[in-house]
């Protein structure tokens, strides 16, 4: 079974803090990786894709380590509006379009 | 506006009473799927469809049916709902060029 593992948290951090989430995946054939954000009782939405070279979008940085089958998300200068659950998502490989979701890491940014 | 719509958004029903949750997308996506989300279990795929008339089981298909007669619609059918199907359900469609999954707003189902 293809697994995606995340620390469930919750992570409670003050505004302005830097916080990092980690995720491991078991399927070495996976080619595409993502972070989704889910607000309470809402649908998940794509936050960013994760590329081998690492990628940055404003305060968010995603990293991929294929050798260790490990993905990370770094949030700098946390805002109250960053409070949400962050889902690590891994494509199942071989162009299947099947996505496996981690159970999510809950982040609360505190004033 | 690109979107996935689901109806109803909230539904309370009784055991054994057949129900259908509709799902529609306006992005001309070929790939669509249904998930359920339960506390502590995360998102689990129920069924998916690669194209019209092509459907396949996901991780938790028992007790559910789907159909894909048109590209834009992918209804979820519970022939005889049971209390363990009480959950939050999401329909989604996938852009196969970007792998971005677009989710509907969710249907909160309670089976008593």
Structure characteristics:
heterodimer, A: about 110 residues, mainly beta, six-stranded mixed sheet, about 0% helix, B: about 110 residues, seven-stranded mixed sheet, four-stranded antiparallel sheet, globular
Low-confidence stretches of chain B: none
Give the terminus-to-terminus CA distance of chain B. Answer: 36 Å
Q: What's the mean pLDDT score of chain A?
A: 92
Please tally the β strands of chain A and state the result: 11
Alpha-beta content class of chain A: mainly beta
Strand coverage percent of chain B: over 45%
State the shape of chain B.
globular
Intertermini distance of chain A: 41 Å
The computed structural class of chain B is mainly beta
Instruction: Sketch the major β-sheet of chain A.
Output: 6 strands, mixed
Q: Biggest interface and which pair forms it?
A: A-B, 20 and 21 residues
Beta content of chain A comes to over 45%
Number of beta strands of chain B = 11
The major β-sheet of chain B equals: 7 strands, mixed
Radius of gyration of CA atoms of chain B, rounded to a whole number? 13 Å
C-alpha geometry of chain A: globular
**pLDDT below 50 for ≥5 consecutive residues: which ranges of chain A?**
none
Radius of gyration of chain A: 13 Å
Number of helices, where a helix is a run of at least 4 consecutive DSSP H or I residues of chain B: 0
Description:
The complex is a heterodimer of chains A (about 110) and B (about 110). In chain A, the strands form 2 sheets. In chain A, strands 2, 4, 5, 9, 10 and 11 form a 6-stranded mixed β-sheet that branches. Chain A starts with a strand and ends with a strand. In chain A, strand 6 and strand 7 form a beta hairpin. Chain A is globular and about 45 Å long. In chain A, about 0% of the residues lie in helices and about 50% in strands. Chain A has strands at about 5, 10-15, 20-25, 35-40, 45-50, 55, 60-65, 70-75, 85-90, 100, 105-110. Chain B has no helices and 11 strands. Chain B has strands spanning about 5, 10-15, 20-25, 30-40, 40-50, 55, 65, 75-80, 85-95, 100-105, 105-110. In chain B, strands 2, 4, 5, 6, 9, 10 and 11 form a 7-stranded mixed β-sheet that branches. Chain B has a 4-stranded antiparallel β-sheet with strand order 1-3-8-7, with no helix packed on it. Chain B is globular, with a radius of gyration of 13 Å. The model of chain B has no long low-confidence stretch (mean pLDDT about 95).
